[in-house]
Amino acid sequence: MKINRILIIVVVVLIGVAAWFSYSESNSTLKDKLKIFTVEDTASIDKLFFADKNGHTSTLTRKSATVWMLNDTFLARADAVKTVLETLKKMKVRYPVAKSMEQTVLRELSGPNQRKVEVYSNGSLIKTIFMSNESMDKKGTYMLLEGDEQPYEVHIPGHNGFLQTRFIVDSRIWKDPTIFSYDYRDIRNVVLKYNERPTANVELGFDGAKRVTVSQNGKKISGIVDTLAAIEYLAGYKRINYEFIVSETFPKAEKDSILNSKPWVEITITDKNNAVSTFKGFHRYNKAKEIDTSIPGSQYDSDRMFALVNGGKDFVLVQFFQMNPLIKPLDYFLKQQ
């Protein structure tokens, strides 16, 4: 009996040890999996590629600690880059997808809502992540690493929100929306041209310090220049943004009609390095059903206009709230006598 009792104790101890090792191994494995989507050293990331099933792609390339380029052509939005890098650093596995849900989730991850993200570090691809919809309780996002068969719910601890939308695919949204961004001391010349009111046309010359000249159609104005008003005006070019790039679904015939018309306002800036930036503003028709034709200009939208920016490459919508401080006539720069 004593021997049997000892055998029973030994068996129980062995079962306990085996269970402990099994639990420890399982817990360790899960702990290791928590960060399979995480990139802790985001400072080493030098390229990001995004794609979806609708044909949209965007490539971001790091040029410096704070500057990223979109498709090697345009400056990328700093705020959006910061959000992506923070997300990659903070996101962790919430749960492995339950076996009963695996096939459904895998179909979603390869379906029309799929978003693909490639992460490069020091010139090498380190992760390819596929992501799709939010989890059923809307607290996680379904993700899958390329080469893995196990999908996961991924989240940022302490944050309830969908992560897929942080990984922007549409290049129009990635573009930095800056129209003008100047230190006024770097501006040397500004030409304002009003095609519907040529008498308002004006050209400013600036030496980068205090001297301002005012001309119209190449002829220097003899009136007294309001230097303070002119320098305050030039300081307004510090940061001017467009609202958004006009949708690719915008009717082509309507867009062509707008661009074939004369812009009502044109702004041309030359900086100290002789680099030139241009803005061409076009009327946006008022969509209201009833328009008071007795009021001049009432047929046009009073809040927004269309514009060509970035050397004519982007057709955008701009708020007058942004542009009005820059749209000034000749008289604005002359002292009243």
Helix content: 10-25%
Uncertain parts: 10-14, 16-28
What sequence of helices (H) and strands (E) makes up the elements? Answer: HEEEEHEHEEEEHEEEEEHEEHEEEEH
The N- and C-terminal alpha carbons lie at a distance of 121 Å
Largest sheet: 9 strands, antiparallel
Major sheet: order of its strands?
4-3-2-1-6-7-8-9-5
Number of strands: 20
What oligomerization state is this entry in? single chain
Average pLDDT confidence is: 87
Q: Assess the beta-strand content as a share of residues.
A: 25-35%
- Secondary-structure content class: alpha+beta
Shape assignment:
elongated
Count of DSSP H/I helices = 7
Radius of gyration: 30 Å
Q: What's the number of structural domains?
A: 2
Structure, described:
- Residues 10-14 and 16-28 have low confidence and may be disordered.
- The chain has helices at 2-33, 78-90, 102-109, 171-174, 227-235, 252-259, 320-323, and strands spanning 45-52, 57-62, 68-70, 74-75, 92-96, 115-121, 124-134, 141-145, 152-155, 178-180, 187-194, 202-206, 212-216, 219-220, 240-241, 244-245, 265-271, 276-282, 304-309, 314-319.
- The protein folds into 2 domains: 42-174; 178-286 and 296-333, no CATH class.
- The strands form 3 sheets. It has a 9-stranded antiparallel β-sheet. It has a 9-stranded antiparallel β-sheet with strand order 14-13-12-11-17-18-19-20-16.
- The longest helix is centred in the N-terminal third of the chain and has 32 residues, at 2-33.
- By secondary structure, it is an alpha+beta fold.
